[in-house]
């Protein structure tokens, strides 16, 4: 039984997390993997378990486009084929899995599934390429919770009014109520108001026109646009575009990749550094502990098995979970 959505691009890392000559190990969809760049600059991602005794290839020697097992010396190329066996023939059965890689939008994506990789399935994230480095913050955070719980957190932004009451909460997300638009490959959920109190972190005069819009793509990639301007003063507005992308590590742990971009103070590196600390703090102190506690309280990754009582704010979460379940069923 497939435990995760197949035939999708999963974000493995931000490209700058993998230094030239270094390896990066990460478990994705329960599979321990190793990534490295060849001398020619090509990114490779392999199963990090040698087929002989499952030693971590990541601890072996890298040479050109090969990596040698540190235990008994089998050598593998970027396609996962064994190209040298000091103990006999380098047969095709000695291969390790190699994952198709796409480097796009400053990230490394791997294709997981039996079908041919389809670049069209990667959503357009060109806002990441367009934003200057001084107006963007890319983060990777390990969270001990199921990826769908983390998607729920973005798909129900009313939580900002309670969990982030002093920074992102103004009551707007609770009062605005969400509207949903369904599309074949994604859905959009939005909270909009022509006049409400701006969240403190927006630093805007109230009342303000406000918008929060999330585009969700399977299995848990979300682009969030949030901004506003004082009523009648669009020239004093702010707008932000943010990636929130959850790559399952296991069913109860997640690689949370985020990228925040903004349209104000875009050349201000000092402001960027301050914002970075604020964002890390808000997530580490508020979202992450709460979601990890929820996961521990649940004791299972399967929300439905616990019979949760649903609220109108769960519209997005229900839609996402339904689509994910359908895709997993389709792969079985
Ligand atoms: S464990 Fe890799 S060659 Fe033996
Ligand atoms: Fe939050």
Defining traits:
332 residues, alpha+beta, Rieske Iron-sulfur Protein, globular, binds FE2/S2 (inorganic) cluster, binds fe (ii) ion, 2Fe-2S
Lay out the secondary structure.
Blueprint: E1 8-14, E2 23-28, E3 31-37, E4 43-47, E5 62-63, E6 66-68, E7 75-77, E8 82-84, E9 98-99, E10 101-104, E11 107-112, H1 126-130, E12 136-143, H2 147-155, H3 160-163, H4 172-176, E13 178-182, E14 186-196, E15 208-217, E16 221-230, E17 238-250, E18 253-262, H5 269-298, H6 315-330
Antiparallel strand pairs: 1-11, 2-3, 3-4, 4-9, 5-6, 6-7, 7-8, 10-11, 12-18, 13-14, 14-15, 15-16, 16-17, 17-18
Helix pairs in contact: 2-6
Bound molecules: FE2/S2 (inorganic) cluster and fe (ii) ion.
The site of fe (ii) ion has 6 residues, from helix 3.
Short précis:
This protein has six helices and 18 strands. It is of the alpha+beta class. The chain has two domains: 114 residues, 3-layer Sandwich (Rieske Iron-sulfur Protein); 205 residues, Naphthalene 1,2-dioxygenase Alpha Subunit, Chain A, domain 1, CATH 3.90.380.10.
């Amino acid at each position: 039984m497939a435990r995760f959505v197949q035939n999708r691009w999963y974000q493995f890392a931000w490209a700058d997390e993998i230094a030239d000559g270094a390896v990066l190990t990460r478990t994705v969809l329960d599979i321990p993997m190793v990534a490295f760049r060849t001398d020619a600059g090509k990114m490779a991602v392999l199963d990090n378990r040698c087929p002989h005794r499952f030693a971590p290839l990541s601890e072996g020697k890298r040479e050109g486009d090969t990596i040698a097992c540190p235990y008994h010396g089998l050598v593998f190329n970027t396609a996962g084929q064994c190209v040298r066996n000091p103990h006999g023939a380098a047969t095709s059965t000695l291969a390790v899995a190699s994952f198709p890689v796409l480097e796009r939008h400053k990230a490394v994506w791997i294709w997981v599934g039996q079908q041919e990789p389809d670049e069209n399935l990667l959503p357009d994230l060109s806002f990441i390429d367009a934003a200057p480095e001084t107006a963007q913050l890319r983060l990777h955070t390990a969270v001990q919770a199921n990826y769908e719980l983390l998607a729920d957190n973005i798909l129900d932004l009313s939580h900002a009014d309670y969990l982030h009451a002093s920074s992102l909460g103004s009551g707007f997300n609770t009062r605005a109520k969400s509207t949903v638009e369904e599309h074949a490959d994604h859905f959009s959920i939005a909270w909009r108001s022509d006049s409400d109190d701006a969240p403190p972190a927006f630093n805007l005069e109230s009342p303000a026109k406000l918008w929060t819009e999330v585009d969700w793509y399977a299995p848990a990639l979300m682009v969030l646009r949030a901004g506003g301007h004082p009523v009648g003063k669009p020239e004093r507005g702010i707008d932000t575009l943010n990636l929130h992308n959850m790559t399952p590590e296991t069913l109860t742990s997640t690689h949370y990749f985020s990228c925040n971009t903004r349209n104000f103070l875009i050349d201000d590196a000092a402001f960027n550094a301050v914002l970075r600390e604020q964002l890390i703090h808000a997530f580490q102190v508020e979202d992450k502990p709460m979601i990890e506690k929820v996961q521990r309280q649940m004791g299972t990754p399967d929300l439905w098995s616990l019979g949760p009582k649903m609220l109108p704010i769960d519209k997005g979460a229900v839609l996402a979970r339904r689509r994910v379940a359908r895709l997993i069923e389709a792969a079985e």
